[in-house]
Amino acid sequence: MRNNLIERRNEAKIIRRIVAIIALILILAVGGAALGGYFYIQSALKPVDSDNNKLTDVEVPIGSSTTSIGKLLEKKGIIKNATIFKYYVKFNNISGFQAGNYSLTPSMTLDEITDTLQTGKMAREAVFKLTIPEGLQLDQISTIIAKNIDMSSKEILEKLNDPDTIAKLMKKYPDLLTKDILDKNIKRPLEGYLYPATYSFYEKNPSLDAILDVMLSQTRKVVAKYTDAMTEKEMDIHQLLTFASLIEKEATKKADRNQISSVFYNRIEQNMPLQTDPTVLYALGEHKTRTLYKDLEVDSPYNTYKIQGLPPGPIANAGESSIEAALNPADSDYLYFLAEHGTGKVHYAKTLEEHNELKQKYITNKRK
Question: What residues does the record give for site: Important for catalytic activity (predicted)?
């Protein structure tokens, strides 16, 4: 009996120890969860990335609830947690969000985001805006960027052509910057990849990396719209931007880009060289208003008077209208076109004889 009592006491002690350990584990677990939850909430109340000023377009539909707006902002990467956003709005008695299109950044605080949604205006004014027109080449873009950051145009251009810079950007944008830009005949790897647009920046003297990130992201965003069309045309991104750059450089304000595109397609189908003057000037590395006959003899893989098909890469940046035209040529039999001297009006021809007549009428005679 005595042995049984001792055994039961020992069992009771073990059970009490087990219960105590379980209780302690539960207390620690609850406490840890509470502490973890506290830190998580604190983190979710802060900006997603205080150093990321890249603008993201957010469209808030009419009639959107706080819950749906929170989910939209979380999906866009503007806030960390939609539920916490919902309760933040509730506990701070925030209301009156307006439907509309917004440009928000991951660096914005919840106060800035909610204020923007209430007023319908950006909470912060841009320090400066960088406008890159269509049809520019990297040396010209470098000059524009240099006016806004602490680097010379020469330093910017050197970095844009630097192998380490290219490798880093290719790793960051593998779907946009492919091995095609490393072709031995490519003059400048990033030529044609910096999208023409107006960009807003919210800090003085941003880094060149930050500027490139915004521009390349915009190129990727625009090109992504045409994924199906590229597949249908059996055209990759590099070919698309190359084709679009030719259209951009040839097109005047009065030109039908889809019609110019059709001329290029027709010439390719008939195994005719494209013979577009802007590629000659690019090969020469010059910006001129006229191409001379002697210029056409330049020995370069970009000279479309000497090569068949497209040059090895883009010769400038192209706007969306030229990108769209590269994928949607007009239905025509034209093989030639020229811009009328003085007016810029574009005339098309089906034969060389007809083209020469137009040249005599609208260019030669008008220059006299």
Answer: 250
